[in-house]
Amino acid sequence: MGSDDRTLTNRQGHPISDNQSIRSVGERGPATLENYQFIEKITHFDRERIPERVVHARGTGAHGWFEAYGRIGDEPAAKYTRAKVLTRAGERTPVFIRFSTVIGSKDSPETARDPRGFAIKFKTVDGVWDLVGNNLKVFFIRDAVKFPDMIHAFKPDPISNRQEPWRFYDFVMHHPESLHMVTWVKSPWGIPADYRHMQGSSVNTYKLVNDQGVAVLCKFSFEPKLGVRNLTAQQAAEIQARDVGHATRDLHDAIERGDCPEWEMCVQIMSDDDHPELDFDPLDDTKRWPEDRFPLLPVGRVVLDRNADNFFAEVEQASFGTGVLVDGIDFSDDKMLQGRTLSYSDTQRYRVGANYLQLPVNAPVTPARTNQRDGQMAFYVDRGPENPRVNYEPSSMGGLTEAPKPERDYHQWIEGHLGRYQTTRTADDYVQAGERYRSFEDWERDDLIANLSDDMKQCPEHIALRMVWHFWHCAPDYGTRVAEAAGIDLEAAKALPPLEGKPPPGQNRRGPTYTSGKLEQEPGRNAAE
């Protein structure tokens, strides 16, 4: 291969002809284990930094509890799920929540414009349940194979070690599905005032499964009882000049004085099928489920009432994984969820060690009994009570045995051609971003335009023109204001052809809007005082 050949290959030198999609069974089907390109790419990505996290390095956390209402909205929770953590009304489950920024290093400022991590560990009677999400309810990409590319583009330039706007927008301009998240992040919603006034969301789609083996799709959300508070760029700069760790301080001090933060945990529910009536795929992480059609249904409350005794032991070593589920909560075919399920736990084994689940902050409250042995930093054996010499199954010598199977288990019919697919339902790549722009208050739109126009001035002309083209297709006023503020030729931007391989936005059917109802009544639309 010549030195001037720009063909992308994997680490084995094999040319990569599709770097956009994970292999799945049909367009919406589950991913397959023989995704060698993806597995090589994501496992190498998981090992790029030591010892701090590659993403979510800057963070804090606290202990508390979750109390289930025993209902999902007006219905008994058992109608939808057999998960005891959600069905047992009044029962308190210990939790640990880690809040974080995403892109910055361990010592970066907490005023950074960045999504915020919201990872909660439930120590249930059926073992640990991890729900790993963000404050915003959407994400930049919808296929896990793009995650390393996205983070590389958003991280500092490998030459200058600076976060350069052109790198961010060079990635975004090739991925119209990112426009929705960009509109959120570049508005004041991209800088939460602190962790106590911040929403949480699973972002990923899961399934709830009941005793009859019937499943529904669901998304999880956490709504702060204190309301939502966000910062403008100017307010964030003023705070950063005084304190780079203001959100950590705020959470710690509030719990110490007894002002324990509280969130109401909610779910959105949708039948488990393709939903052809929607212009977006419900499994697409870059889209919100319209809350006037799929309302937030309360399921319980979360209270944080105890700070960590040791920050390193409990916050830095807290380890989460999207694959850590309990019976009654299951995976959907969300491609980001399936990719994260490999990546998150693989990262923890590398970063903390093979026995990270033996650490008190990560260990379940119920006894762990496995046939796994040894490994780095093992300090006890989580064996069964009878015969310590039997570390295999099955056995006639007193070893561990399988748990009883549910009477009616959940089974999913899978059929399709194995290949690499991108979703064909892309209308809301522009529609939801435009709806979000129009739903902002004037001060939020003003801050959004100021932030984007400042970024556009630092980008090469071809990137700035393409981004204005994208914004204009989200909403004409959106693109026009960015162009005017940044001094970009709007007509030249509008004259650009559609992206190669992407459908023209004008050919997409307009999807359902969601500017009414509970979404527009979200609390705390005012900036921090």
From TrEMBL:
Endpoints of the signal sequence: none
Function: Decomposes hydrogen peroxide into water and oxygen; serves to protect cells from the toxic effects of hydrogen peroxide.
Family annotation (Pfam families): Catalase, Catalase-rel
Name under which the protein is recorded: Catalase
Superkingdom, taxonomy of origin: Bacteria
Binding site for heme: 344
Gene Ontology biological process terms from the UniProt entry: hydrogen peroxide catabolic process; response to hydrogen peroxide
Record-listed E.C. numbers: 1.11.1.6
Keyword Transferase (UniProt): no
InterPro entries: Catalase, Catalase_AS, Catalase_clade1/3, Catalase_core, Catalase_immune_responsive, Catalase_sf
Residue ranges of every copy of the Catalase core domain listed in the record: 9-401
